């Protein structure tokens, strides 16, 4: 079975490695434990300071940070990607909610819409749904797995493996912020701790 959306994600991961790192550091007041000169051992600090992406968090120092991207999709959409290794990826994104012309009103609506795109995949399994917090505001999180099958449009590789997706989203000042991961079962063992640390250290700057 072809999985165009998931395969497009894989293609995007390949492109991730082609981008150069952009400096998105900030001279804004720093939060406790978020000093870029003294982050938690084994981590770096990301700080975004553009409108709609004024956030900060720690991410594993071995992960590749890629070019900051902005799209005119769903009224306003921004994304910062990180690549742990292999075919895995993690993205932090934000987009306007319906109050600003966006497609979705709430984080749970957005996250569930992405989940619905996968629930017809072979061996789909909903691992968990929960309501934790992100940046000290209420959030919605989903973890699921499914079998990804098909041919990568950008190579001769044929994909046939179980992948794990993790997504957590929160509404904040007219925007929906989402942290998402995509990795095969083995790589998820590496991605999960990094994802959890990003969620735990995530803060809004205004």
What's a concise summary of this model?
The chain has 206 residues and is of the alpha+beta class. Helices cover 19% and strands 39% of the residues. It contains three helices and 13 strands.
Largest sheet: 8 strands, antiparallel
Question: What spatial form do the alpha-carbon principal axes imply?
Answer: globular
Assess the beta-strand content as a share of residues: 35-45%
Order of helices and strands: HEEEEEEHEEEEEEHE
Provide the CATH architecture: 3-Layer(aba) Sandwich
**Quaternary state, please?**
single chain
Which blocks of ≥5 consecutive residues have pLDDT under 50? Answer: 1-33
* CATH homolog superfamily: Mog1/PsbP, alpha/beta/alpha sandwich
Averaged pLDDT, please?
79
Return Rg in Å: 17 Å
The tally of domains stands at 1
Query: Counting H and I runs of at least 4 residues, what is the number of helices?
Result: 3
Relevant terms:
Protein Transport Mog1p, Chain A; 8-stranded antiparallel β-sheet; 3 helices; 3-stranded antiparallel β-sheet; alpha+beta; 206 residues; disordered N terminus
């Amino acid at each position: 079975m072809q999985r165009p959306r998931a395969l497009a994600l894989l293609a995007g991961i390949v492109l991730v490695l082609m981008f150069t790192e952009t400096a998105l550091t900030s001279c804004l007041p720093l939060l406790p434990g978020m000093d870029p000169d003294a982050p938690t051992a084994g981590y770096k600090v990301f700080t975004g300071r553009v409108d709609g992406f004024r956030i900060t968090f720690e991410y594993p120092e071995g992960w590749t940070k890629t070019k900051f991207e902005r799209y005119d999709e769903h009224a306003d959409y921004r994304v910062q990607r990180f690549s742990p290794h292999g075919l895995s990826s993690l993205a932090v994104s934000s987009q306007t909610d319906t109050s600003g012309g966006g497609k979705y009103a709430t984080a749970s609506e957005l996250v569930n819409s992405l989940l619905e795109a996968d629930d017809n995949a072979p061996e789909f399994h909903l691992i968990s749904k929960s309501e934790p917090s992100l940046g000290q505001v209420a959030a919605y999180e989903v973890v699921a797995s499914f079998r990804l099958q098909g041919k990568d449009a950008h190579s001769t590789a044929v994909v046939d493996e179980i992948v794990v997706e993790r997504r957590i989203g929160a509404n904040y000042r007219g925007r929906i912020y989402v942290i998402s991961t995509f990795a095969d079962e083995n790589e998820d063992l590496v991605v999960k701790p990094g994802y959890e640390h990003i969620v735990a250290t995530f803060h809004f700057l205004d």
